[in-house]
Amino acid sequence: MTLPPLAYHALVGFVVLNVVIGMVTYVTLLERKFAARMQSRIGPYYVGPHGLLQPIADAIKLMIKEDVVPNTADRWVYNLAPIVFLVPCVLIFATLPFAPGLGVADLNIGVLFFLAVSSLEIVGLFMGGWGSNNKYALLSAMRAVNQIISYDLPFVFAAFVPVLLAGSLQMSAIVAAQQGVWLGVVPKWFVFYPVIGQLAFVAFLVATLAAENRVPFDILEAESELVAGFRVEYSGMKFALIQLGEYAHMIGTSFLGALLFLGGWLGPGAELPLVGALWFLLKAMLVFLVVTWVRWSFVRIRVDQILAISWKLLLPASIVLLLATAFWVAARGGHAV
Amino acid sequence: MPSNSAGFWTETRQLVRAVGRAMGVTLRNLMRRPITVRYPTVKRVYPDRFRGILALTYDRETGEENCIGCRLCEYICPPQVIKVEMLKAEKRNYAKTFTLELYSCEFCELCVQVCPTDAIIMLKSFDLATADRRELLLDKDRLHALGLQFEPSWATGNRLRDMQAPPKAPKAAAAHAAPAAPGEASDGKT
Amino acid sequence: MPETARSTLEIGYGGSERLTMNMGPQHPSAHGVFRAILTLEGETVVGVDAVIGYLHRCHEKLGETLTYVQYPSIASKTDYVAAMTVELAYVSAVELVGKIDVPTRAQWLRVLVAELQRIASHLLWLGTWCMDMGGALGGGATVFLYCIREREAVLDLFESLTGARLLYGFHQPGGTRYDLPADWAPQCRQTLSLIEQRIGEYEAMLEDNAFFLARTQGVGVISRELAQDVGVSGPLLRGSGVNHDLRRAAPYSSYETFDFRIPVETAGDCYARYRVRMAEFRESIKIARQALDGLPEGPISSRPGVKSVGQVRVPKGEGYARVEGARGEVGCYLVADGGPKPYRLKWRGASFSNLAVLPHILPGVKVADVVAIMGSVDPVFGEVDR
Predict the structure, then answer these.
(1) Nearest CA to C224 among C245, C244, C249, C248?
(2) CB C132 within 8 A of CB C371
(3) What pTM was computed for the model?
(4) Was domain C59-385 assigned CATH 1.10.645.10?
(5) What are the DSSP calls for B12-51, one per residue?
(6) Which residue segment(s) compose the domain that B62 sits in?
(7) Residue C322: beta bridge partners?
(8) Which helix (H) or strand (E) holds C321?
(9) For B139-179, how does the pLDDT look when each residue is reduced to its tens digit (9 = 90+)?
(10) Contacts of B35 in chain C (CB under 8 A)
(11) Closest Cα of chain B to A38: distance in Å?
(12) How far is CA A211 from CA A29, A207, B171, in A?
């Protein structure tokens, strides 16, 4: 049955949105179990077999909690902030192709759209900090804006290295450029591209950590100083939306990383769409677990040190890397693979 | 943070090595078994001297109550949670009432230490959590019931005092340096 | 008054307006109930007003109403993280004023548990400090849980010895209350080896780490003169270059028979204090092993077992006994009047004097550094407020 294109895309969008939200809640469980094992403990265990129903319990708890709005908060800004925060974080999934032909919209400027929309979360974040009328929240929101803006540039430059290597902003084209194997054994994923690929991947991971406010760059939340950062005045469903948005953004950039560097849906049996999507999911989870592993291994650094790393180290390095990639691609006549 | 290019490569190499080492430690711990003991389905083994909740005991041979109502435990308890009333009888005294406020008890074991008849002891359990504080105001019957319900710890008054007392007769060379016999060292009574 | 200052909400980020912010008393990294009223200019602290007393429980009055036999169990509640050393201070004061002998075995046992307690206290310090710097959910919590895991091993040892895990009541005037159980010594050696190996792991995880070094080096420098003027003690003093440790300077409880080094660092910043405490781990393990190897036979107390509440009477006199606690010099000044209770008991808490250095070193640092500095000062508010 062929639906009119608008209805078809709406349906696909609806399905993807629900899948994303479901995945986000279970990713929180994955992170908690993984972190627990790294700390010699078990993690959620009692709700459901081995804690598998824990995210459901958390979701129900957050939904039935009382919605406390501070008296002196700026009501419109305060109430809109979670939504303004959530929408870009979920919208980035619209451009991700989960398998050839399986995705909401495979734009020919896919990567650019992804990066541009994902940085819109800052607006929602700052609205949350401002509207809460709380010194701690405002302090943390200002730090966050500082940090995310500083790290978006290296993030973009690192993400553009695969774009240059593939020669296209379209995500499916980038994945197609990673097909094949070198020397019969090593897949042609960009992470295995000599020198440039690894450096770009490392830069991408570091910039992801910072753009996600993950330790060691989580001065934004800094639980031991500002308790919860800009989220401190939110409770109940609004808090759930903010959490949802953060983890959705986290997974979205993991998917992007898997797509740009780890070959997206490529893998044995990738001709079948669902198997390709499965490979994509596994690779994204691998990127996510690496980020989580880093998160649980380091102490936090101060905000001025974070900004110093960004402007003095990461940004020049990623610019140099991008230029070097550009020269390399041009020297090879316009295509790298 | 490296801000001069002179040490840039060394600092970068150090950074990479440090990052690798830190992540290696967490990875190694990922492979270790968790040390969580899944209480309450699994209980860990408590040591012999565990200071758990308190109880009153019966004499093993005769089945009589051990407590003679001497109130030494009441006097020594630092937060004063024990209250005893003595009941005089022909052969020996008893405790008419014996209340112990477990919610304020410090579990310091001093009452066990002073008891001359090993009547009050501590048990190898602390499982008395309740939602009603009045259940933790233990009276004499409750204390005796607890004594029969859980496993007792090693410590009783006489055992503790024997462990602490200096030896009366020289048993080893080191004992020659021990101070004078107990009768001269201690001072008065209350 | 800070109260009225706190009601203004003018915020100047990087500007010249000042923001008065309350850190505590309920705060995840205040290490207890401690209120620091910080005056900030942007992210820099320009003034600090420390408010203590939230944990005051009238210990010194309790010392007057409880007898010499009862109080050691209560004394552990002042420095509850390092209870053995603080009980030792009290009974040392009683023995000093009452001229009570302590048999050698008891002295060696006291040294053994004091060093084990120092290890446990430093493990807690390392865990909470890293947690403060890394956040409750970040990398810091990992180190925290590892340190707690090791501390559980030491607490299990104490549980086999006394029956309690945190507040022991191990010391009595004249000696100790418990002797070693039969299979305790091999278990203790095993635990010491485990901790030695794990300390190496933590040093590897933290020491080369550029993030950790950036957060701790050059932060919270206490100069040697400042340290000696204000009267700090313990690792704070030794991290600023002063070679003063009571176990060497004024040995008590047969410490003079043990062979150990006093770690001293000169930099005076958080990293120096960290290095001092990490070195103290290894020295404590060395001392504990020596104590286990050479433990003499004999009685564990020069007085009979506690039989009544007024058993120990101390003739008139006064004296001050001090021990090297995990945080510094813990002292107990006792005035006795011949009865079973002291006339006056005064505690010198190590953390109380250590905290006095904060108004000197906090102005000029960033807010994030306040947390790192508080952690490296390692206060325990039971000692501060008593």
Answers:
(1) C244
(2) yes
(3) 0.83
(4) yes
(5) HHHHHHHHHHHHHHHHHHHHSPP----TTTS-PPPPTT--
(6) 54-166
(7) C331
(8) strand C317-324
(9) 999 999 998 888 888 888 888 888 887 666 554 444 444 44
(10) 149, 152
(11) 4
(12) 22, 6, 73
